[in-house]
Write a structure and sequence with these properties.
669 residues; alpha/beta; Helix Hairpins; Rossmann fold; 3 domains; 6-stranded parallel sheet; 5-stranded parallel sheet; 20 helices; elongated
Length: 669
């Protein structure tokens, strides 16, 4: 019997925990029914000697009790008109019953309803419970790049919904998201963000964010405000395996720390039948940032070029289903530039550069240009010493990029890496004894607390300036972790500033929206040419490096210029835009970029640099040690302009010496 009572008590406790409002409401009903029954008994006792309407005595009977029970029940809803000729004792009972009913029943019900509504509002505010969503973007774990990722997703066309599932504080995440929009001056529109605090590895939490109906998933390495990782790549892979059984349709972009772990995970995915058919993309954030830093140091225009080409804010790359080649596709589009083809059969696509998705519609009548122009390849040889301050996973990719650039025979880069705790005098001595052109790239130290974000960058710059031993012609680039520190570098004459978390976000948003084109974006970021699919690269060249400009070339439209250079270079170079709208005196010539009205997709930036090199035939064998150095000065304050809009519109385009052209480069050709 005792065990039975204990079992019943345990059941009641569990039921109360699971359904607290139902238990409380039921208890209130039972309590008030007991109160009414007791009041009816007292009323029957007090009114047993009162005459009824027929002149008889009510008496103390079951019929009298049932009649009073009815009156008491009605009285709870209407306090007037019951026994108006009743004795004072009954009137007092009515008052007591009215007060008790008001407090215990009406008041309790109002309080219960208020509590239930407050619970609904609290759950809504804190995203407690299941979010019934579909075609939404999911971010698992939180890192400094996540806020930038949400900002970049806001630029996608249409209304977007983003769900963040992280063990980090919901209020802190919301604050970071709000700050990124404020700091960048971006209007927050057409995007709804839900932040759910919980463990990303919990199947219950994953189902509550409707991950099975998500459009795309970003699986980030959890880290603090500076990017200090709080989990390993093995933990990331475990989380991936946990979500595979729930979602089969969404594309998944996976961030990792270690490049070697990336290759190991890719091998595991290929070997697993459950994973090989999914749209999974894994990348090392150190590798991505490292390649961008290196290319921006090699050519200072690349920093803003990457920001412009990878964001959806003013234009990007879009997929167009077609079986045509790049050259054939050019005939059918007036407001976008086809740049790459991938896939086979019915799944084949063309990747096109356009200012928006709406600009990728085919023209009704195909248009073809037959013109060719005098093409030659006389690339300027770029030779300098790159001093990298800071040793981490990004410095490894920088050295790799410098090596690939040298092996491509585009130039010769001597990359020298110094630790974060370097002796500044030793660095300055090395710089001042080196006769070749010099550049400095300062990396930000991640292994510090949040109060010292980017402090090493500022201290290194101040020490270099304070020494008065740094030559004026040394170009300086810097990496920052905290975007709010960017404006502070304006007075320190830094040529390039790369926000590493922002670059990771730009790369992530492209992988989330174009999961089948990893090699395309690898080609854009790196000088390496050993990628598996169609090889391509992005490049910036003077017009005279790829054209035999004995005199200016004139074109009647943008489409004619693009087609002519693509055909004449035997499909090696595809022009997509220009850098700058005005050339100052440089390389012994003064030229003006005229009649170029492209859509601006990048912010103004300074490409002031000193280029040392020789013009050499890249088809010939090079002996770099015997190549002399010729100085050339370029000073441009300009913007990046793409030519994707109105390709067939009649418009005079003049190509002169000194103009800088943004190109898609196909090394295989």
């Amino acid at each position: 019997m005792k065990k039975r009572r204990n079992g019943q008590s345990s059941f009641l406790r569990v039921f109360y925990y699971s359904h607290p409002y139902l238990v409380i409401f039921t208890a209130l009903i039972i309590y008030n029914l007991v109160l009414i029954a007791l009041a009816a008994w007292l009323m029957t006792y007090l009114m047993k000697d009162i005459e009824d309407a027929n002149g008889g005595v009510l008496g103390y009977s079951i019929n009298a009790y049932l009649k009073n029970l009815e009156y008491c029940t009605v009285f709870t809803m209407n306090t007037g008109g019951i026994y108006d000729n009743a004795p004072n004792s009954v009137v007092i009972l009515k008052i007591i019953l009215s007060v008790v009913q008001m407090i215990t029943f009406t008041g309790s019900l109002v309080g219960l309803a208020t509590s239930m509504l407050q619970g609904v509002f609290d759950r809504r505010a804190h995203n407690v419970g299941k979010l019934k969503l579909k075609n939404h973007y999911v971010i698992l774990n939180w890192s400094p790049a996540a806020a930038n990722l949400i900002r970049e997703l806001s630029f996608l066309p249409g209304r977007k919904t983003v769900v963040v599932l992280s063990s980090e504080s919901r209020d802190e995440i919301n604050e970071q998201v709000d700050n990124i929009f404020l700091e960048t001056g971006t209007e927050r529109k057409n995007i709804t963000v839900f932040v759910k605090q919980g463990k990303p590895g919990s199947r219950k939490a994953l189902k509550e964010i409707s991950i099975d109906k998500a459009k795309s998933i970003a699986l980030l390495v959890p880290s603090d405000s500076l990017g200090h990782t709080t989990a390993t790549d093995v933990d990331t892979f475990k989380l991936l395996m946990g979500i595979i059984g729930i979602t089969k349709e969404a594309s998944i972009a996976i961030e990792a720390n270690d490049e070697e772990k990336v290759k190991a995970m890719e091998d595991l995915i290929k070997a697993s039948p459950d994973l090989s058919d999914l749209e999974l993309t894994i990348f090392s954030k150190g590798s991505v940032v490292g390649h961008v830093l290196a290319r921006s140091a090699i050519n200072s225009s690349f920093a803003d070029l990457y920001y412009s080409m990878l964001t959806y804010k003013n234009g990007s790359f879009y997929e167009i289903p077609t079986k045509n080649t790049v050259e054939e596709s050019m005939k059918y589009y007036n407001d976008c530039i086809p740049v790459s083809r991938y896939g086979d059969g019915d799944s084949s696509m063309i990747y096109a550069l356009a200012s928006s998705q709406t600009k990728t519609f085919k023209r009704l009548v195909p248009k073809e240009y037959d013109r060719t122009i005098p093409y030659r390849k006389k690339l300027f040889f770029n030779s300098f010493v790159l001093y990298v301050i800071g040793q981490n996973n990004r410095s490894e990719s920088i050295v790799e990029e410098a090596k690939a650039y040298t092996e491509s025979k585009l130039g010769k880069i001597d990359c020298r890496v110094y630790p974060f705790d370097l002796d500044i005098n030793e660095l300055l001595q090395d710089i001042n004894t080196t006769k070749r052109r010099k550049k400095i790239l300062i990396l930000s130290n991640e292994n510090v607390d949040s109060d010292n974000a980017d402090v090493n960058v500022f201290m290194t710059l101040l020490n270099l300036k304070a020494s008065h031993k740094l030559p004026d012609d040394v170009e300086i680039s810097a990496e920052l972790l905290d975007q709010s520190n960017r404006s502070s570098l304006a007075s320190l004459n830094v040529t390039n500033v790369i926000i590493s978390n922002q670059m990771v976000a730009l790369y992530l948003v492209q992988l989330m929206t174009h999961p089948k084109n990893t090699s395309f974006y690898e080609g854009l970021l790196s000088s390496k040419t050993d990628y598996k699919s169609e090889e391509l690269d992005i490049d910036v060249r003077y017009a005279e490096e790829i054209l035999d400009l004995k005199e200016p070339l004139e074109f009647n439209s943008r489409g004619e210029f693009i087609s002519a250079l693509y055909k004449s270079s035997n499909h090696e170079y595809l022009p997509i835009g220009f850098v700058g709208d005005k050339m100052k005196k440089g390389m012994g010539i003064a030229e003006t970029l005229t009649n170029v009205v492209g859509k601006t997709i990048g912010s103004a930036f300074d490409i002031a640099k000193k280029t040392i090199g020789t013009i050499t035939d890249m088809g010939a064998a090079l002996n770099m040690d015997e190549i002399g150095e010729v100085e050339a000065q370029i000073d441009i304050n300009s913007r990046i302009q793409i030519l994707s809009d109105h390709l067939s519109k009649k418009e005079k385009i003049v190509i002169n010496k000194g103009m800088i052209i943004v190109l898609i480069h196909y090394p295989k050709n």
